[in-house]
């Protein structure tokens, strides 16, 4: 198929390549921190019988950890990557395709997890509405997305690749998007990162190593509370 004339095929081609070149080789600290937060939220629910849907699961790297809490379905546009995920994570169910067009059972899920997916969908409000429709009453969305302020002001980021959609949100925009269908219980940033300007110095190992020796992780936590993290984390309950 000519991907140039088919935007969805172009996206699928991009994410198959990106996942095989990146996620199948390693999972970076930013993603591991997102997973740490999500697993903490799941632990607080205190259940092991949850029905969990991970949207944009990529290689399925998080699914083995999600399986501790119940049944897991992972979905992603990257069909070739999911073919390999099925053999690596036999305990999870994987569904390849465009999330906005796939037919999942409405009101069937206790938790939907979406890590760095929101900025790559064409209609973000429709995405949030579909997630809400899939959740049970009082079900939870556990979401991570790029922090627009930090990426635009403090980081040099490569332009989108062919087929890669990109629309970052700031904290206010994310809250406004979610509040139509959810009660936002937590919204904060994690993983301070910068490669330009004064924030590059503030986040540098040269500065952070001696500061961490003096105050432990409190300096890192302060930067996260000030909204200086690469990632915005949102815990939202369906209303």
TrEMBL record:
One function term, GO molecular function aspect: methyltransferase activity
Pfam families reported for this sequence: Methyltransf_11 (PF08241)
Keyword field: Methyltransferase, S-adenosyl-L-methionine, Transferase
Protein origin, superkingdom: Bacteria
Residue ranges annotated for the Methyltransferase type domain, each copy included: 53-142
Annotated EC: 2.1.1.-
Segment forming the signal sequence: none
A biological process term (GO) from this entry: methylation
Family matches, as CDD domains: AdoMet_MTases
Protein name as catalogued: Class I SAM-dependent methyltransferase
Organism of origin: Neoaquamicrobium sediminum
